[in-house]
Amino acid sequence: SAVAQTQVKILPQPSKVVWWAAAIPGYGQILNRKYWKLPIVYAGFMGCYFAVNWNSNRYVSYKNGYLDITDSDDATNSYLALIPEGRTMDSYGGRTAFTGLLKSGMEQSRYYRDLSVIISVAYYGLTIIDAFVDAHLADFDISPDLSLQLRPMIHREHGTTYNVSSGYSYGLMGRVKF
Description:
- The structure is a single chain.
- The protein has 178 residues and is α+β, with helices and mostly antiparallel strands.
- It is built from four helices and two strands.
- The protein has helices spanning 14-23, 27-31, 38-70, 95-136; strands at 147-157, 167-177.
- Strands 1-2 form a two-stranded antiparallel sheet.
């Protein structure tokens, strides 16, 4: 006699998935058995890390250059490293104009660093939400028999107090099969 084997589907618990996804990025996708999402999750985190790191390094360079150019010590000259090769401070309009450029560069890179941090936190939250939604929809059945049927419809209207004649109205009738 043939013994029919039934496959037991293990459903993830949404609350457990949320806590694990918050503790270890990408682990919620692992618990949901959505392994194909892991490269997307970690590529996003790497992009966020790169953006925060790059903007932080730019901010520190501009800040140090601005602090060095505005102090009275001539030995501090890290701002010279920010001038591209083949150009001088005079090609930017002199010391005062270059100081303004350093200050605006510092403010702009600080803005983009802060924006990168906010985007990173939002992306982290999005991965947690994705894991939570996948855990809730793990037992959602998508059968191949989903259908939508539309048919024309003719409806006869009977006379009312305002309209003594009878008429017809035409339209579509829909039916969704789950």
